[in-house]
Amino acid sequence: MRTDYLAFFLSLFLSRLADQVLLFLVPLIVFQTTNSASLAGLAFFVETLPRFLAFPICGALCDRYSPIRLLHISQIYRALICLVAMGLYGLFGGIGWLIGLSAICGVLTTQGIMAREVVMPHIFPDYRYGKTLSYSQIADQTGLVLGPLLAALALEICPWWSVVIGVALVFVAADLAMRVWQRNSDVTLERFDQHAYSWTQPLRIAFGHIFRLAELKKIILLAVGVNLIVGVTLASSAAMVIGSFSESKDYYAGLQAVGALLTIAILFVLARVSLPLKLLGAMSYIALLLGAFVTATSASSEVYLVGFLLIVGFDKMFNVYMRSIRQRVIPARDFGKTVGVITLLNNLSQPLAGLLVGVLTAPIGLRGVILINTLAAAVLGIGVAAVVRLRLATAMER
C-alpha cells in the first residue's frame, strides 16, 4: 500500500481511537464519581446526542467549504478542547468539564466523519470504491475496539484527567498523519460553487434528492431495518448473555472481541474480492435477519453467539453496500448535505429499538422485543424487494 494511503488510514484509526477513549471515559468517570447509574446514563446521552443531530449541518458544511480543511479543524480543535477543559478542571474542579468537552468533541467527530465521507471517493484512484470503504472501515473498527481497552489500561496507571491529555496528543498525531497524506498525495478535489442560501436550503436540496432518487429511498428503508436489528442487539446483548444465560462479564467481553475480529476479517475479504452490489446487499441483509432470529430463539449462549456474530459481522458488509450506492447516485456537489440527512434518517431506528427494549421487555420479554424488531426489518426488506421487482417489471413492459 502506498505511503500516502497508509497515512490517511492511520489518521482515521488514530482519530477513532481517541474518540472511543472519550466515549468510554465519560459515563465511567461520572459513575465512579457520583455512584449513580442514572447520572452516568444521562452523561452518555448528553455526549452522544449532539453527534447524532449534527450530521445534516456537518454534511452541508462539507459541500460549502474544503472537506480537507474541515478534517484538520475537527482534529486540532478536539485536541485543543481537551487541553482547555482539563485546564479548567484543574482550576475549578468538577466533572462537568469532561461531559462538556465530550459533547463538543462529538460534534467535531461528526464533522470529521462527514469530511472523510466526502473526500474518500476521490482520493484513491488506484482502488475501487468498495475496496476503499473496506480498508477505511477496518481502520475505523480497529480504533473502535482498541479505544475502550486502551482507556481501561490507561486508567489503571494514571488519573483520568491525564488520560484526556493523552487523548489530545492522539488527536494531534491523527492530524500529523493527515498532513503526511496531503504532502505525499497529488489529488486535487473538485470544488463546486455553493450559492448563498438560507439555513434550510441544504435540507430542501437533500430531501429533494431523497424523494427523487429511488435508490436512495431503497437504501434508507433497508438501513432502518438493519438499525432496528443492530439497535436491539446492542441494547439487549448484555442482558441476554449475563442475565438469560448466566455467563460472566469476561465471556461478554470476549463475545465483543470475537465480533470485532470477525468484522475485520469480513472487511478484509471485501477489500480483496469484488462482489456485485446487488449480491452484497441481499447477502448482508438476509444474514442480519437470520442472526436476529437466532438471537431471539437461542436456547444457549453458544447458539446466541452464532446469531450475534452474524449481526455484527454482516452489519459492516451492508454498510459497504449502502455507501457504495449513495456514492454512485448522489450528485457530487450535494453529496455532503445529502449524506448528512441520510445518516440522520438511517440512525433514528437505533434509539427507537432501545426504547422498545425499555418499554416492552416487561410485558412481552426480551426475546419478544427482538422478534418484533426482526419482523419489522423483514417486512421492510420484503417490501423494498417487491417494489424493486415491480419497477423492473414495469420497465420491461415499456
TrEMBL record:
<feature type="transmembrane region" description="Helical">
    <location>
        <begin position="370"/>
        <end position="392"/>
    </location>
</feature>
<feature type="transmembrane region" description="Helical">
    <location>
        <begin position="277"/>
        <end position="297"/>
    </location>
</feature>
<feature type="transmembrane region" description="Helical">
    <location>
        <begin position="343"/>
        <end position="364"/>
    </location>
</feature>
<protein>
    <submittedName>
        <fullName>MFS transporter</fullName>
    </submittedName>
</protein>
<dbReference type="Pfam" id="PF07690">
    <property type="entry name" value="MFS_1"/>
</dbReference>
<dbReference type="InterPro" id="IPR036259">
    <property type="entry name" value="MFS_trans_sf"/>
</dbReference>
<keyword id="KW-0812">Transmembrane</keyword>
<feature type="transmembrane region" description="Helical">
    <location>
        <begin position="303"/>
        <end position="322"/>
    </location>
</feature>
<dbReference type="GO" id="GO:0005886">
    <property type="term" value="C:plasma membrane"/>
</dbReference>
<feature type="transmembrane region" description="Helical">
    <location>
        <begin position="219"/>
        <end position="245"/>
    </location>
</feature>
<keyword id="KW-1003">Cell membrane</keyword>
<feature type="transmembrane region" description="Helical">
    <location>
        <begin position="160"/>
        <end position="181"/>
    </location>
</feature>
<keyword id="KW-1133">Transmembrane helix</keyword>
<feature type="transmembrane region" description="Helical">
    <location>
        <begin position="251"/>
        <end position="270"/>
    </location>
</feature>
<dbReference type="GO" id="GO:0022857">
    <property type="term" value="F:transmembrane transporter activity"/>
</dbReference>
<keyword id="KW-0472">Membrane</keyword>
<dbReference type="InterPro" id="IPR011701">
    <property type="entry name" value="MFS"/>
</dbReference>
